[in-house]
Amino acid sequence: MTRASRALLAAAALFATLPLAAQQQDGRLTGRVAGVGAGAPVEGASLSIEGSALVARSDSLGRFVLSGVSPGPQVLIVRRVGYVPTRLTFTMPGAGALTLDVTLAVNALQLEQLIVTADRSGRARGELGTASVIDRDAIANQIASSLQGVLELLPGVPLSPPGLDGPAQFSLRALATSTAAGAGAVSGPGAADITAQGTLIVLDGVPLSNNANLQTVGTRGEVVPPASTAGGGVDLRRIPAAALERVEVIRGVPSARWGDLTQGAIIVDTRAVAVAPEFAARFDPRTSEGNVVGGRSLASGAHLLTLTTNLAQTAAPRSLSSAATLRGAAQLAHRWQRGSAPDGRLAPDGRSALPRLTMDSRLDWYRLRFDAPERLDIEAGRISFQDDHGLRLSHRSRLALDGSTVELTLSYDGQTQFTREARRLTRPTTPFTDRLTEGRTIGTFVEGPYSAEYTLRGAPRMLYSRLEWDRSPVAAEGRLRVAQTRAGIELRHESNTGAGYDFAIDRPPQTGTFNGVRGYDRPRRFDTAATLVTSAAYADTRLLYSAGGMVAELQPGLRLSVLHDGDSWASGSRSAMLEPRVNAQVAPRNWLRLRAGAGSVSKLPTIAQLSPDRQFFDVVNVNRFTPDPRERLAVVTTFIRDPRNPDLGLARGSKRELGFELDGGAKYGALSVTWFDDRIRGAVTLRREASTLPRDRYALADTALGSGQPGRIVEPPLFSEPVPIFLDRFVNGGRLDNRGVEVVASFPTIPSLRTRLEVGGATVETLFGSDELDLGGAARLAEFQVDTQIVRVPYFASATTRSKRTIVTWRLVHHQPELGLVITGTLQQRLGEERQTLSRNDSLSFLGYVTREGELVPVPEAARTAPEFADLRSARGDARNSISRVADDWLLSLQVAKSVLGAGRLSFYVFNTFDRFVTFTAAAARTAPSTRFGVELTLPTAGLWGSR
Amino acid sequence: MSQTRPDRARHCGLLALALTLTACVTGDITQVTRSEQPVDTTGTPGGGLARGSITLQVELDPIDLATAATVGLTRTGLTVTLIREGTAEPPRTAVTDAQGVVRFSSLLQGRYAASITRALSPAEQALLPPADRDATLFAGGVSIFLSAGANESRQLALVAARRGSIIISELFNGNAGPVNYGLGDYVEFYNNGDTTVYLDGLLFARSGVGGYHTGVVGSNTCAERAHLRTDATHFWAIQAWTFPGSGRDFPVPPGQARVLAMDALDHATASGQPYYADLSRAHFEQYMSDADTDNPVAANMVNSYIGGTGIFGRGYTFNNNVSLTLALPMSVSTAPRGTYPGLNEQTAYLGIPVDRVLDVFSYGTPPSFLEAFPHLPRPCAEWINPVFDRGHFNDHRTENRVAIRRRGLGRTPDGREILQRTRNSGRDIETASGMLLRSLARPPQ
Question: Is the ipTM value over 0.90, yes or no?
């Protein structure tokens, strides 16, 4: 917060130094809208400036005038039913007018100004932080099955073929490793660890949340799902690429409007416009996908109805499994508009007055089904099945007042998640109890193979509401003006009402973890888990100063995020954070833009972290296993420990970024560079706590072999010995630092070749560590637990892992508008990939030791060489300071798109053309998906729906 | 701690002397490689197949010269058998000349195993002094890879095989496999001598795996541990168990065997797989922790030098690529510890002096298997010093889940089986056709 405050002051100071005497010179943009080919004027096209409220409409000669356009790089958006929407980037001079003629086409591929990559000059609405905007044209040109594939257009994101393989979690500006983080051990951060730290996904104004996802049994046992996003980020497979209208990715510091994030926000708008119906299908050897999209305006424009449906299937390689992932998705959007704004503002379509009341209702359904049936030739008895579906109902009412707007958003998101896993296990002969309460039991012995099967039935629910007041004056004048002021409150309620984790107690989904102390799992209901109740209030403003050719903008804001300690918003605060944020931007020349941002952010813990399952300890007192089953005797004492942490609260992050943009247009190219430094403190991580349990030892009586009777224990116990136990508790003890540089450059277009080159890349370094102690790996602690000869084990400071990677993506786009042909070659380089564990691992690195009574006894460094600590002076095997590097590599993908049948499109693509599959470097390896060929066809089906 | 009968002690003393002497000898490590299957595709530029030759010089092991002289055995007139491995070609034989040389010619490229087995007749054995009468045969072997058209020369050392007394006779180490069960391992000990032996207090030890002692390069190089692995004065063990008992609790009469189980229970039932043995009547078991079951029928081994509790606290498997040893009672606490740079103090090796070693049993993965998995660690070239064992059995495939055992040499007039012990595991061990046929599965007599 201190850093953010400093940044805020610095930005304000920067603002104050601007020449106040300069004259305000808002520009006037004029031009003509014409159709491609003959150049007939297009009447009734709406023209708007992205990121502003300016709108205009073309007249019968296609002419238009837009007044008050801010100087600097801008994006003009032109829409007309029957034509594809057009985006045009231009630079508004500081003084005077600019004339810009616009060409509209039926097919986006015929547009001269087609943008098929993320638009570096795009503006996220209401945001000043660094953003990438991916508009419909780029989405349509990107071969993607879901939002995940669309996000590959961002700098530094690895490419993958389209499909539904595995959970699609996305994290901005952070590097995941292949192993997840655990308590004590040197590992992680895995994809879930990174995404759990918070990239916010907002779908049509409502956040998507994965906080109530409990579909995992963690790493306990041998039967775990092949993949689950529980504990991590939202599975982006639920959002088909076909449903997307626009994606704004706020890579920098988001405005105070957005919470529950530490790494930026992805704002997704689905298609809710009048769009001529189209059908699209894609096939490659493993994935088939079909979409139907259509939108129609009804009752003279008062109602607008848009329907998007998607069906997709990805099959796993047959040699590995018979698994298939099936997705169905549908979005129904309805808009109803009534009246006109009291201040006479125009609507964003530029054709009519802004309605007094706009009501948007959306129904969003998805189903994601993963089915891996048994394959006898691979593993008998192994079955994996997941079936998740969800229905989200959201409603947004926007009321135009005099000079401002009030917006109310309400949403209910109900999901049903089902997981069934089965595997044949063989358990060693072991004493066993199915006891569900604490106490001593005469147990049984279990052994032999069995089918271990469990189900997880989760039902995450989220209620969400936002009330926001927004004043964005259009015609304000003066050198310094307030461009926008917002204030709002947000309420969220998340829970999971699922039946939970269920299995036959005597056939648990784990065998090997039992060691005479740690118990097997017991079934658990989810609906007894905690609810996650949060509220937030925020306010921000956007100030604009212009003088001469210079424009400066400042967006300071403040957000209060509260995690409540009860089931309702009336309950007290469990954890709260005040989050100041500021972004500033100065354009001293119309080809130069400087940007800086800083702010505090916070991320909620998940329900799984707030309500972890109870841990059972089954301490074996007697295990006499005679050849005659009738003579056997097992005595087991069950203990239950609760790992909940009442102090668990928000993870806190601070974000800083600094960047510049040079924009010389198509003639000189453009360059955008951004440095970022994100530091998350108090990230939710596991603390391994040591304690002890008593193991009573008994004398046995009547144990003669051949008696046919089990012996019996003689009370009282002969003696009791301590057994150390370890309980993993979620705490705010993690650290995650991400820093790096993002570069996006557009080289000047070569007109004769009709080709341009764009390059986007990012170098990211991620440091992941914990403030908790490292008591040692699970195997060593298990030994300590059962081996009474080990009287103590050393503990250490936690290690930090450092990962580094550079990804550079070169996109060569050859475009022939008159042919409607776009050829895209994408070369991605992966450079400097390395991973290092930073820790002290000499024989004196131990900080102290854990006794069998579960006590932590520190040993001062000076005393560690003493003879009595010889047993503790062992090298720390799992925390070597070595760097593992993977050799640099690249892969190339090609895509050819051609306009067909008017608005239709036929694409052919080859992913990883040269099948660069695996890179080995010493002990490290990197695999890339192998070559995939595919074809995609989009057909206009106007006759089925009507053209308006 | 242990009481041994005088005759056994004498055997062992002589054996130890013999082993010590052998340490001074530098000869070929004899081994038999069975698994490579070279394909005969050799051709010469002029057409046809290039043929080569193998010349063998048979030498008597210096420590056995006196024994050989007593029975009148020289290096002349011995029958050498040559087998081209991996083929169905009939074995070739030839007889050594006056210099002990034999030559095989017109040989195609491939791996060849040359061996001599010269059994001593009862009359010849009778010529030996009583303490040396457990020498039952002279044997030797060598493995040679012959390139196309090459002429190879090798020495073939001939050593006297001695029966010893209590020896390691069978082992089962089956990997976890599809049922994820790896707990059915056992080792069998056989009394190959003529008098009852007591197991009480004997030490059973295991050299390392993963590049520790005998075997495989892991993160450490072979050179790093060579001073331990090839030491002639000590067998360096990473684990050692002591047989329980106070002296005369666990006798093994001649011709009988005892079984040490990882877990003494019926593993066919526990695993659901018929290829695991019923060890519920095993004589000894590892008992490591309360994660284990305790069978009162099987005596629990004393964990003398373990450093852990094994797989899920249930004891250790008898992993591949190691050597096992059986040693006379000794003080573990005062025995030397072996280290190398960077070794964790906790995992130092236990030094078992060569004069305490009764028997060594070495076994490992087939070279062909390793060739198929190039990412796996490779065994070190020097496996163990020849003073302990002159060659390891390298056809132990854990995935086959079959036992390996010491070959039978013959039977005494009263029907007792005598097992082959030429101090060369490569030739003394074979893949077993059944399990525990000399002990738990032995038909009643």
Answer: no
